[in-house]
Amino acid sequence: MSEQSPMPSVSSSIPTMQSLKRVRTRHFQTAKEQGSKFTGLTSYDQLTAQIFDAAGIDFLLVGDSAGNNVLGYETTLPVTVDELIPLTRAVAGAVKRAFVVADMPFGSYETGALEALHTAVRFMKETGAHAVKLEGGVRSADQIRRIVDAGIPVMAHIGFTPQSEHGLGGHIIQGRGEGAEQLLADAHAVEDAGAFAVVMEMVPADIAKRVTAELRIPTIGVGAGPDVDGQLLVWTDWAGLTTGRIPRFVKQYADLRGILTDAATAFKADVQGGAFPTEEQSF
User: Is 201 a catalytic residue?
Assistant: First the structure.
């Protein structure tokens, strides 16, 4: 009798994040359980969404950071639902694999659970997004629970929450000293409310590691050290388009500002010098 091949283990039969044809909420949980890191970038348009999707980025956040990076605002506070909906629709319509998260802007969920649900429903109906994100821990638990109860996945956001930057006194690291207990309370509150994952922004690495160990749901770091389940960056920071102060937690993987500046300078010189267009570019 021939020797039989061993049966595959349960873990080997579970697809990795990289092998998925479409990322779903359950895959974030599977990645945490397997110890497989996942990645996210912001995106606000069709072209970057297609590029990041093809590169295998696992989720794309259509963030209210569009205020700083697309709409010309100094902060995220002026951003409206009506401004984010067409951006989210463009991103969701461009991807084949990546999970798309719509950011709920300031003023669209703070007054209560029903307002939050109304905003979340608009995003899901009008954009094709797969989930919504909102800021706040304990203070936003009722809103998260109401949205989740309606069948809409929620990504939570704790630590430094940009929509609350004035109340927090600026870009201040959260979770230090006595603040660690509040961060832990916020993390457990969003998990208990039904969030499928939680972003932690500008949090000390040791506290982020503790939160990640305590929570059943995946944690996503934005300046929260290496011991979280996934990492998220604003793409314009990451690609070197942003000017001025770059957050310490950002690693710039390209210098697109320099590349585009050189291209624009060369174009102007060619036009003024008669080198463009040539016969090749003419009819």
Answer: yes
